[in-house]
């Protein structure tokens, strides 16, 4: 059986969660609080409207901080108020095409934001565990189609990928120079491309499908044959959470883990994911190929090897890529038909934990 997050571990734990207003952060905060954790969120206001953060309701966000990860003084003050035992660092500038438009800001958020967080961690007496979320794009991608293990060479063609690879070096430096000697376990989690309900970000496939459906317009796909390690948000977050549990308990001191679908699953191109989600939502499987238009370069192939997470944590994706697509489509279809976002999200968390 795949290891799942342990509610009894998280009950009463003080958790400082950055990026709580984002898509993955909103799922993480709700799940953690459902398990009884005392969660303090720190992030900018949601970048999109609607947002899952907003749809979950005002009570979901009580006691959180809206602030910039680059504001060292505000960040340190929020951390002091929380006195966390565990950091989950998800705040980031996460979009490849936006990183081409704002490369300096992307590095400032993703690299120096992490520096400021880890520097504040040095003064946090109760802290025992830090998981910094990076990405599947930290590896030097040679477009070979291979699945990268954790010891593959880091790199990054675009500014987003490069900034996250640099973030990995920051984490390694702070671990070896400051935190290991204090007994704080610090590691990075490299997740694959995440699907799930409640994502309304710009420049992402599923939100683009939902927006096209709502506006009655044709979906544009810029790289229809590109492949990615698709996984459901709950599988990815489950990896982060069980990694934090294992680090906190001293079960492992591994510095980085990949979380993604099994390499034995066939790689699904973007166009097939789009068509499957459209069909599952009762929409016509229609889209327009914009790959010939002038646009920044993005990788055509990307794969992760999550075998080390299997050996270290007994973790594996519980949902196949097709199941991840189905769960995602069902969330959005329920929401479009008037369903409550909080109820839809909690019901999928419950199904994941029970299944």
How would you explain this protein's 3D organization?
With 355 residues, the chain is α/β, with parallel strands linked by helices. The chain has a single domain (7-354), classed as Rossmann fold (3-Layer(aba) Sandwich), CATH 3.40.50.720. The protein contains 13 helices and 13 strands. It has helices at residues 7-10, 23-34, 52-55, 72-82, 96-101, 103-121, 159-179, 205-215, 233-248, 270-280, 307-313, 321-336, 341-354; strands spanning 14-18, 38-43, 65-66, 86-89, 129-133, 147-148, 185-191, 194-195, 219-221, 231-232, 256-259, 287-289, 303-304. The strands form four sheets. The protein has a seven-stranded parallel sheet, with helices on both faces. The model has no long low-confidence stretch (mean pLDDT 94).
